[in-house]
Specification:
Oligomer: single chain
Number of helices: 22
Helix content: 40-55%
Bound molecules: adenosine-5'-diphosphate
Number of strands: 24
Radius of gyration: 65 Å
Strand content: 15-25%
Distance between the termini: 127 Å
């Protein structure tokens, strides 16, 4: 980076302007007021067109501009005055807003000529140019402290101001497309943009640039380089009037070099701008030194803050540009994504406005079987089954989101069921349109129908099987009853011979039939005990069968409970005493009962005989609790007890718990099962058990004191 260089305006100005006065090929005689340098035809033309319309560049001082009174001033204005004088033409001046306006009005033939213009290809399409009478180089101006010695190539990718409609703008656009051009309507605005950091540089004519820089006081600017482009200014006039161009060219040629130089130095002479009055050399030196110091301090301070501001603004601008670029890219990519989704969707998607199809995706064309152009701009109702059109029209009219099924007609005329979802969306331009998704549900419908058929069939099968099962169940119940009835009816036939065996074996063992040997006694004892076991087993089975077949006779009768319990204790006493077990009985006396006494006795005997069987030492306890309307009888022992797992299996048929007493203790495993059946089904009570392994058991039953029995029991 080269060191910052303040703009040395007077010498630089002189250097850069380097005004070239083109050698006049015409006569040096400028007193020829009678226009003898023109042909007769040209003079005649002037008589026919005495007044011509000109629109000077409004802000191009010192070349041309309007002063505070709205008068056309500058180099061009002076040249026009001479032309008027030399030719007799009169120029009617029109003040327009900008050079761009001048161009527009000229093209509309409302302006006839320009006092200064650079020749460009575009302009040559509608204007004719005289040879140039002034030339100014174009300068590159940027901020002090930034690079200098620049060429236009160094401005690539930088933000550079150029003036709308100016030849330089056209030149930069064509020859340096990589420069990021920012257009402004005039030079003043452009210079300010560079000064405030809103642009990196400006390419501008040195003459008006220096004029404005001094006038506005933009002291942070510098001339950073000269462009290859230069303004060669000529007078331009309407292309359809070539004779006018000839008149102007001849008139310009007729102006002497001295006169031309006088005009130019009048407007851009350095002497006139000099502020130094040659009064006191030392005073001036002192003043200049003081002013220079103060100015330098101010400029330094101002430059410093300006540079900071410029840097900040540049960063902000770059950030903003970057953000905009990113946002644009994000928008573009999201639009692309959306389009891809739209096209790639397996579901049909389309947009419509009051039925008119606006856009569709490929899946929609597949569903309908039409090409996209056969669907677009058509009314969607054309493709809906006639009987559903009314319905769809009503749904569209509501504008509400909707999900429904309908039938559409394919291109081959085949109706197909479709599932539809539709809702209203708002476009960027705030128009309301409907977006619709639809999917072909033919296969789904077929599967649904097949499923329904299968369900119907299944129902039928279930009904049939249920009826078959019911019949089988009835048959089984019948068979079960038959079995129970058979066993019950066999009671007599089975028990009579067994009773004989038990009875006669007992007589023989008692010696009533004479002496028997020891061996005979042993064998007969076994016969006797086996026959008794069989008799007890048959008795239990018959009892259970009778109960299950509903053939039990119930005989309620009045009795006193303690009497019945004493009877049971007496019956079991020999066995208990044989095992040396104590008895603890606690029965409230006089509890009046009305129930089936024999069945209750049967249960108590079972509880007591089990307690004795499964207790090796200790005692048996029996007690009764007189409860309200019920009586509870409890048989407790200090026997082997039952573990938790085995407890759950008690009261089941043929369930004998595996203990060390099982083999030596006779039993059928039916006693508790029968006991529960009697208590629950005949005596209308309940049974319960509590036990602790190796620590004794407690069996209880609870029955109503008074049995209300509906007679007769079914037979
Ligand atoms: P069993 O004729 O075998 O005694 P039960 O139905 O009367 O048939 O009893 C079933 C099983 O319950 C018996 O085999 C025995 O294992 C167990 N049991 C019954 N009462 C008691 C008790 N008081 N103490 C321990 N175990 C008992």
């Amino acid at each position: 980076m080269k060191p910052a260089r303040a703009l040395q305006w007077p010498p630089l100005f002189l250097f850069l302007l380097s005004i070239t006065l083109y050698a006049s090929s015409g006569r040096s005689d400028d007193n020829a007021e009678n226009a003898t340098f023109l042909t007769a035809e040209e003079r005649a033309w002037i008589l026919e067109h005495p007044i011509l319309r000109i629109a000077p560049a409004p802000n191009f001082p010192p070349i041309e501009f309007f002063d505070k009174q709205g008068q056309h001033q500058g180099i061009t204005a002076d040249f026009f005055k001479i032309i008027e004088k030399k030719t007799g033409l009169q120029f009617k001046v029109e003040q327009l807003e900008s050079w761009a306006h001048v161009l527009v009005k000229t093209k509309q033939k409302e302006i006839d000529l320009w006092g200064e213009a650079a020749r460009t290809e575009k302009r040559e399409q509608y204007m004719l140019f005289t040879s140039p009478y002034l030339s100014f180089p174009a300068a590159i101006i940027n901020r002090q402290g930034e690079s200098n010695h620049l060429t236009l190539d160094d401005l690539t990718n930088l933000y550079v101001v150029s003036i709308d409609g100016y030849a330089s703008h056209e030149y930069l656009k064509t020859n340096h497309p990589d420069i990021k051009l920012i257009t402004t309507p005039n030079i003043k605005a452009g210079l300010k943009m560079v000064s405030f950091g809103l642009a990196d540089a400006i390419v501008v004519n040195t003459a008006p640039a220096s004029y404005y820089i001094q006038k506005i006081g933009l002291s942070n600017l510098q001339i950073a380089g000269q462009s290859t482009f230069s303004w060669s200014l000529a007078i331009a006039s309407r292309k359809d009037w070539p004779i006018l161009n000839s008149i102007l060219q001849k008139t310009l040629d007729s102006i002497s070099d001295t006169k031309k130089e006088k005009i130019i130095t009048k407007w851009i002479s350095l002497d006139k701008q000099a502020f130094v009055e040659k009064r006191s050399f030392w005073l001036i030196i002192a003043l200049i030194t003081a002013i220079a110091i103060v100015c330098m301090a101010i400029v330094l301070l101002w430059n410093f803050s300006l540079r900071k501001m410029v840097h900040k603004k540049t960063l902000e601008l770059h950030g903003e540009l970057e953000r905009r670029r990113e946002a644009e890219e994000a928008l573009k990519s999201s639009e692309e994504r959306l389009n891809n989704f739209f096209d790639a969707s397996f579901e049909g998607l389309f947009l419509h406005d009051k039925g008119k199809i606006l856009d569709i995706n490929p899946a929609t064309t597949e569903i309908f079987g039409y090409k996209a152009e056969e669907l677009l701009n058509h009314n969607l109702l054309e493709f809906v089954s006639p009987d559903r059109r009314q319905n769809i029209t009503e749904l569209m009219a509501t504008g509400e989101p909707g999900t429904y099924e309908t039938t559409v007609i394919k291109s081959d005329g085949k109706p197909i069921p479709v599932a539809v979802r539709a809702r209203t969306i708002e476009t960027e331009t705030k128009e309301k349109i409907r977006i619709v998704s639809l999917s072909d549900i033919s296969k789904h419908k077929q599967a649904e129908a097949a499923l329904k058929k299968a369900y119907d069939n299944l129902d039928h099968i279930v009904i049939m099987r249920t009826s078959e099962l019911e019949k089988a169940n009835e048959r089984l119940t019948e068979l079960d009853q038959l079995k129970s009835m058979f066993i019950a009816s066999m009671s007599h036939e089975l028990r009579t011979p067994l009773n004989s065996i038990v009875g006669f074996t007992g007589i023989i063992l008692d010696g009533m039939s004479g002496d028997i040997s020891k061996q005979q006694r042993d064998q007969l004892t076994r016969v006797y005990s086996s026959a008794k076991h069989l008799l007890s087993l048959i008795t239990d089975i018959i009892d259970i069968s009778k109960i299950e077949a509903g053939h039990t006779d119930v005989y309620p009768e009045s009795f006193i409970l303690d009497e019945l319990i004493n009877e049971a204790l007496q019956t079991t006493q020999p066995h208990r005493e044989k095992k040396g077990l104590a008895l603890d009985s606690n029965i409230p006396s006089g509890i009046q009962m009305y129930t089936d006494k024999k069945r209750l006795l049967q249960c108590l005997l079972n509880y007591l005989s089990n307690a004795i069987k499964y207790t090796e030492y200790g005692k048996i306890e029996i007690k009764a609790n007189d409860l309200d309307g019920h009586v509870e009888i409890i048989v407790k022992d200090s026997g082997i007890g039952i573990d938790d797992e085995a407890l759950t299996r008690l009261f089941q048929p043929f369930e004998r718990i595996d203990t060390h007493l099982r083999i030596k203790t006779p039993g059928t495993g039916l006693g508790l099962y029968l006991c529960k059946k009697i208590t629950v089904e005949i005596l209308k009570g309940s049974v319960a058990v509590e036990s602790e392994f190796k620590n004794g058991s407690t069996f209880s039953l609870k029955i109503p004191k008074k049995l209300t029995h509906k007679k007769p029991w079914p037979h």
